[in-house]
Amino acid sequence: MSHAHPTHADHHGHDHQVPATLPALLLTLGLTLGFALVEAAAGWWSGSLALLADAGHMVTDAASLGLAGLAAWLMARPPSPRHSYGLGRAESLAALINAVAMLVVVALIAAAAWGRFQSPRTIDGLAVSAVAVVGLVVNLVVAWVLARGERDLNVRGALLHVMGDALGSVAAIVSGLVIWTTGWTPIDPLLSLLICGLILSSSVGLLSEALHTLLDGVPGSLPLESVGMTLARVPGVTEVHDLHVWSLSSKRVALSAHVRVPDLLGWPETLEALRRAAQTLGIEHVTLQPESIAQTVRWGARPAPHAGHCSHSHPHS
User: Fold this and answer.
1) Would residue 236 be called left, alpha or beta, if left means φ above 0 and alpha means ψ between -120 and 50 degrees?
2) Percent of the chain predicted with pLDDT > 90
3) What is the domain extent for residue 65?
4) Does the global pTM surpass 0.70?
């Protein structure tokens, strides 16, 4: 399918091969899920809430890594008649689900911790610390593998789970050592609540960013007024209005706008200059509609005010 009209400037240099992050996600998925089963059994045997919470957290890690892998595969799919932009939004959707899942985990751990305050139980502190040390090593290996790859929103969501679980392992280690040396069991639910607070902060931030992207929000690094003025400064441009900027994925930003020019004879050159200006801002997908001042005057139309309205005066010799 080709575009016959000259008003559309779109850079199609996007690679739809399987992303390099997919093998890393699958590897870390296997490591995480395997150890989660070991940790759950150890937590049940030792009676440690911190260890059981960490095991439950690792299960959600595995789910988040599987979801991230699925999103990475979907993002690599080429555009289709049903999804003309491709499936880049799968990244944001996976991050949203991961963030919500983390909030659910935090609520469940907090409820269990409150129950432990009400009904303390005997805990094998030494066994808890030993298993948690192995869990921490597994989490650090998984985090290292993920951090070496691309840091898109999708991987950040999975990495959030893994780092939260690493903190859970640290809490379980400290909890086990304190109980082993002092016998003070309230440290177990106390540290669980502390980790909940740390995870909650990161989860809310990721949730906010994912929602912003899914709702076609303007990327924070590209203020709308700044983008409009950059385009309006291009020679041959009188005014830019109906400007819209949104994210297709964490790496692809789209822009559409109406551009008022003195006449349409020089539009091809102006269009190319506008495309280059957008590229300097990191915007590759650009759709522009030209409007001739001469036509506006001849037709007697008075332009209505629009959101994203930017104008720039050029000196004439």
Assistant:
1) left
2) 19
3) 15-214
4) no
